[in-house]
Amino acid sequence: MGSQAHVVVGSLVWAEDPDEAWIDGEVVEISGDEITVNGSSGKLVTAKLSSIYAKDPEAPTCGVDDMTRLAYLHEPGVLQNLRSRYQTNQIYTYTGNILIAVNPFRRLPHLYDNHMMQQYKGAAFGDLSPHPFAVADAAYRLMIKDAKSQAILVSGESGAGKTESTKRLMQYLAFMGGRAGAEVRTVEQKVLESNPVLEAFGNAKTVRNNNSSRFGKFVEIQFDNSGKISGAAVRTYLLEKSRVCQISDPERNYHCFYMLCAAPPEDIERYKLADARTFHYLNQSDCINLDALDDAKEYLDTRRAMDVVGINNEEQDAIFQVVAAILHLGNVEFSDGEENDSSVLRDEKSRFHLNTAAELFMCDANELESSLCKRVIVTRGEKITKNLDPRAAALSRDGLAKTVYSRLFDWLVNRINDSIGQDPNSKFLIGVLDIYGFECFKTNSFEQFCINLTNEKLQQHFNQHVFKMEQEEYTKEEIDWSYIEFIDNQEILDLIEKKPGGIIALLDETCMLPRANHETFAEKLYQNFTKNPHFSKPKLSRSDFTIHHYAGDVIYQTDLFLDKNKDFVVPEHQALLGASNCSFIASLFPPEDTSKPSKFSSIGTRFKQQLQSLLETLSATEPHYIRCIKPNNLLKPAIFENKNVIQQLRCGGVLEAIRISCAGFPTRRAFDEFIDRFGVLAPEVLGGSYDEITATKKLLDKVQLKGYQIGLTKVFLRAGQMAELDAMRNEVLGRSASKIQRKVRTHQARKNFILVRSSAVHLQAICRGTNARRSYENMRREAASLTIQTYIRRHHAIKAYQESLSASITIQAALRGMAARKELLFRQRNKAAVLIQSCFRTHLARSDYIRLKKAAIATQCAWRVRIAKKELRKLKLAAKETGALQAAKNKLEKQVEDLTLRLQLERRMRSDAEEAKSQEIAKLKLAYQEMEKQVKETKELLAKEKVASKIASEKEALVKEVPVVDTALVDKLTAENENLKTVVTSLETKIQETEKKYEDSAKEAKEAESMIAELKNSVLSLREKLSQMEAENQLLRKQALSSPPSRQTSQISTKLLPPLKQSLSTVSNGRPHNEEHQSASPMKQGTSPMKQGTPLKKSTSYLERQPESLEALINCVVQRVGVVPGKPIFAITIYKCLLRWKSFEADKTSVFDRVIQMTSSAFENPDNNDDLAFWLANSSTLAILLQKSLKISTGSGSTPRKRLPPSTSFFGRMTQGFRASSASMSYEGSIVVRPVEAKQTAMLFKQQLQAFVETFYGMVRDNLKKELTSLLSLAIQAPRTAKASIVRGRSVKNSNLDSHWKTLVDNLNDFLEMLQENGVPTLIIRKLLGQTFAFVNVQLFNSLLMRRECCSFSNGEYVKYGLEELEGWCNKLKEEIIGSAWNELKHIKQAVGFLVIFKKFNISYEDLTSDLCPALNVQQLYRICTQYWDDKYNTQSVSPDVLSRMTDETSDDTSSGDFLLDDDNNIPFTWDEISTSMEDKEFSQIIIPNEILEIPALQFLQDSA
């Protein structure tokens, strides 16, 4: 593995560092065996040559998925690969078939959803990114394929994520073996929900983990022959019973004790508990409470979990009663008794706890005390009672506590298994083992000894499996591996468990000695294993010993080995608790067979037996391994501690597996990768036309490498050979670099010379020009100076003259102003004096006026006051009289208003009564008129029928021509008719008189009401008369039928009887009969009874022939008679038939059921795409027709449509009849879709048909996806031949490697043609293509993210060319067909566009996210950038700054979802949208073919055709 022989100054190496475990850097100095390395962090490290390993400069910055693909498979390379992947949130990594899971200490829900499980379903192991789902899928597939049970071993130290990995495995196995319904979810949930219960009673705080499992768990998922989950079971191993009685600081006892002490007050009082610090079994450590753990809440959660698992409340109370009894039992202390070697309870406190424990155990306190302080020895003929000293009594107490707790834990496990349910007939199972890893603390006692023994046994099993995998790999590649040695740890296992002579055997032997202690045990170890290479005695220690495990040396302290190893149930304890009054406690101690003598039993021996049973179970299965790693002890994300991880890799056996691989051929490279990397060592190989195997052999022969092996697909190199090849490659590249540098320096020197020469010539030209310009400037300045002087002199002269002129003008102005100001001052003073005099005189006059004015006002005020007082007295008297008048006025006004309101109310009531009476009178008039008409018609019908019956009875031969006449009956009816007329006229006169009287007074209105009552009575009497007439009519019919009438007469009477009954019933109900009944009257149509029966016969024939027509229609559809490509003929035919039969307006019909039954028959053959397309086209077209035409009926199902009021005249009724017939004829014969008021059955039929269309659409879409899935898996990755041609410089377009994409395009084209031939609506085709392209985008893009080999430059070119082929096909289609389907490929287009870009290193984060790949989120970009590798030009991915920016964005976005795309399987259209997409004229263009019209039962369609 090392590369010491090839280390030179400048080499990149890994050096061991005490702080960082390993540090990478460059060799700066070599002095003998010591090497100085300048680390990449700037730190100088000096190390021995033996601890130096070569570093791969071409290793991917983000690591590799499988560490067997590392160029240098050694400890620092493995560590760096894990660190690189952890920093990019890739927490899973393969080492061959082993999965390494690094705990991220954060939620990553997108890695475990159903979509991710769907990706791994059926995928070959290693094709996708590392994941627990891949391990579970491989186990499930092997179980189904080989019919052999599987096992998945999940190991790691506390806090490494074993439980979470186990949950994910369970989740995937339930997904794969799930049944329809919630049954499997119940099994999975019960297994997972048993965790809180088992954690409460089996987990405790240790030094490294606050929730450490102190037992091993093996979950068996049982499957039936079909691969479906049939049951499950939980097996537990190696419970740490000694923790119940002995704990060390800062650890804690099992969680359930602390939960119970924090229970609600009623439970505390019931179990007589107190603070946890008061109990001996809990206060041995200062750690009572945990910061992140609420014991009171955990107690309630545990109770709820017990409810879910199936433990009832009584059993829960009994469980915690036992836990409380153990706590009280631990507080029982002993002191020396009166006799020698005897013991008694120390004090009353101990007596209280003993009584409480006995009360909770429901046993006798004295017997409990006796069983703790005494021991009964059974000899051959007698029983001897022996007293126990205080120390022995305390051990007896602790033994009882451990036994009770252990059996309680076993009962919980059994109860959970009973609740989950096991399948005794299960043939296969997949077991998931969750067990603690290798442990090495400052103080290592018996528990660590047992745990490390378990890991030694599992490591041996693991080594055998890894060696077996190596053998299978070598055999598969057909290489020689017979000389490879297997590394085994059997000697360490013999040291521990060999019998006799092993450590466990010596421990049991020491425990049986009466006076033995831990020093005795240590002496025996030193005597027996002094020469054993795996055992040693530490210095300065009298009782410790060291075992050299595979994971490192562990020093064990033997102080408590003997106490913790003793495992026996005292017969007194067994008898006492077996006779407990509590059935639950008694069930924990079932009676034992006392006939057999009891042997000494130790925890170590029983532990070894459980371990052997576990290994036998694992040996019967095919193992799979998951190693969980805790990256830091702070339990925080984004922290990777190298030393901590290295220690776990050693303890987990990962490095041991690497050593096994390095014993053979640790470096394995595919031929194309090997040639691509080392082809520079033999350029002639690249230039020749050799295949890959021949080129590899020639290359290795040229470099004279020995010991390698050539397989079928890979080249296998021994340890260190990769470093030799890299050294040769670096040497060749170094010489090439020197030549390139020499040529570049020559080119640069010549370029500099030419540049300097041209610069000198240019500089000289510039200097000459500068001198010429300078002399010209001097001459120009001299001429300019003369001109300036001239103008300056002129300026000075003009300035002096102007100053003199200005001064003289100023003096003159000042003198004139002085004189003017003196004159002005004199005038102002004169004016001021005059003004003062006038103001003074005004003041004197105003003062006199004001004084006189005040005197006058005072006099006036006094006089006005006197007058006002007189007026006030007068007003007071008047006011009294006015108030009385005002009150009287208000009272009168109020009375007037009341009278006015009463008058208005009375008028309103009279007007309302008048309107009501007038309406009632109008109704009665109409009723009278209708009754009169009905009476006339009835008389006429009866007269005709009587005449016909009478003539028929006399002359049988002339029955058809001679009517029967009953003169007496006719006269009677005529008289009654006259009477009715007189009654009607009298009623009319009375109504008129009543109206006049009502208008005159209220009394006349009352008389009118009485008259109306009389009229109602008369109407009732008329109805009675009509009923009597109907009875007489029936009697006459019976008489006529009793005589031998002819067949024609019976037909006439039969046809006329229903209309007559309906008219009579209508009249009797007081409603006018409708126009259909009026038009059916033979007298009003002026036709004979014979002619009147013709339309009735025709409609009856339609109804009778409807079933025959329906069967003919269904046969045509099933046999597809007269199919026209691209036209949904049968949808139009069915629609027209339904209109002709008026099925939409019927309350009940079987037509819809037959159509639905016929359509549902297509579901019997879901794989026939042509058949599904046919039904999709016709059902969707028929649904569109129904969507356009059917309208919900406004009335109820039994209420007829509202019609115009019937015409009273003969011509009016005839006109309405013609209108109705013409409307029905135009409706039946029209091709244009017309609205129809449909009944509820028709609306239900439309909804069912729409549901069928959506189902057909989903089936067609899913079938297309199935066809494309296999092609897409080939289209995303270029074949190996394509890669080889790309490496050698040939283009993909020139090769015949695009067949997969062409096949994909051909399948799409064939599918589209099939849909168009069947006449599927354009909108549905457009939506189907859109979802199909979205599916293609999801599959290709997800494969790109999940498979690193797809994220290469050459593969990007391959996929880009395929997308161009697909785009060309899309461009040939019409816009209404393709729509926006091409835009659905935006993710894969942008991703492929990024893969084929050169110089990705120069792309900034903003350019990448905004311009190149705007549709991709940061997680997707990050994954593509980290997985990218250039197999053609060997260029780098984006810069580290861009990657770090992406990492920050990903870590900050706590709501980041799945980086994979989801496939949308929803129906993408609505019926409003699809109905508006087709116009009515499209349906009118569809003509029913002659083949259908020629069928006799469907000839009625010719009218509409």
UniProtKB/TrEMBL annotation:
Positions in coiled-coil regions: 882-1039
GO cellular-component term (any): cytoplasm
InterPro entries xrefs: Dilute_dom, IQ_motif_EF-hand-BS, Kinesin_motor_dom_sf, Myosin_head_motor_dom-like, MYSc_Myo11, P-loop_NTPase, SH3_Myosin
Myosin N-terminal SH3-like domain segment(s): 8-57
Pfam families from the UniProt entry: DIL, IQ, Myosin_head, Myosin_N
Region span, Disordered: 1063-1102
Keywords: Actin-binding, ATP-binding, Calmodulin-binding, Coiled coil, Motor protein, Myosin, Nucleotide-binding, Repeat
Residues annotated for ATP binding in this entry: G156, E157, S158, G159, A160, G161, K162, T163
UniProt feature, compositional bias: Polar residues: 1079-1102
A single BP term in Gene Ontology: actin filament-based movement
SMART domains: DIL (SM01132), IQ (SM00015), MYSc (SM00242)
Dilute domain ranges (all copies): 1153-1452
Region called Actin-binding, residue ranges: 611-633
Domain Myosin motor: from-to ranges: 62-730
Entry GO MF terms: actin filament binding; ATP binding; calmodulin binding; microfilament motor activity
Family: Belongs to the TRAFAC class myosin-kinesin ATPase superfamily. Myosin family. Plant myosin class XI subfamily.
Name of the protein in its database record: Uncharacterized protein
